[in-house]
Amino acid sequence: MKTPDLSALVQQFLEHKLTLALAESCTCGLVAAQLAPATGSSEVLLGSVVTYHMEAKQKLLGVKKETLATYSAESQQTTNEMAQGLHRHLPAADVCVAVTGLCGPGASETPNKPVGTVFVTILLEGRAHEYRTQFDGNGDKLREQAAQFIYQQLSELLNRRKEVSGAVQPGTKQVSQLSAAHKS
Q: What Cα–Cα distance (Å) separates residue 31 from each residue in 68, 143, 169?
């Protein structure tokens, strides 16, 4: 997405009267930095916290040490806890987005979770929309693709928002189910 598209995304937030908060790991603040110049962003974006290191995830967002040890810093379970922690600290945020992933070799890289694997959780109206995706390229390209993916998912969720009934949509979980979902 280019800046005009991001302005359109911000306008969607304004039309729905929603605010946004971000917890960024692998994107290192890129999502917030690209949104900031968009028209109306100051009314929408409450803030972004970059929690690149595991210690920052724990101390700033309350990600459990056990979650990091069991699933790794680059996992859906971790993004779920990042999003929940963000919402606890910024309850005025109507939409909370958390992202983590592997933008370079090492970390929790495995054949099942290669470099380029990105995890996103978007909390919207008490529901967690979970995404796992795979991108190709170097670190900068991976971060850019992850940011673009987040913008796309946000836009799609806002487009569907009026159509959503009280039922949980496929690929989503109730927020209260997130913590219990990965304890077993």
A: 23, 9, 25
CA–CA distance, 26 with 28 (Å, rounded to integer): 5
- Is the C-alpha dihedral spanning 154, 160, 166, 167 positive or negative? negative
Name the token pair of 15.
Answer: 């039309």
Burial 136-156 (b: 16+ CB within 10 A, else e): eeeeeebbebbbbbbbebbbe
Tokens standing for residue 61: 């967002």
**Cα separation values, 85 from 19, 80, 100, Å:** 16, 9, 14
List the structure tokens of 76.
């859906």
- pLDDT tens string for the chain (184 positions)? 444 489 999 999 999 999 999 999 999 999 999 999 999 999 999 999 999 999 999 999 999 999 999 999 999 999 999 999 999 999 999 999 999 999 887 767 788 889 999 999 999 988 999 999 999 999 999 999 999 999 999 999 999 885 654 444 445 554 544 543 433 2
* Alpha helices per DSSP H over the chain: 3-16, 30-35, 41-44, 54-61, 65-71, 76-89, 139-160, 175-181
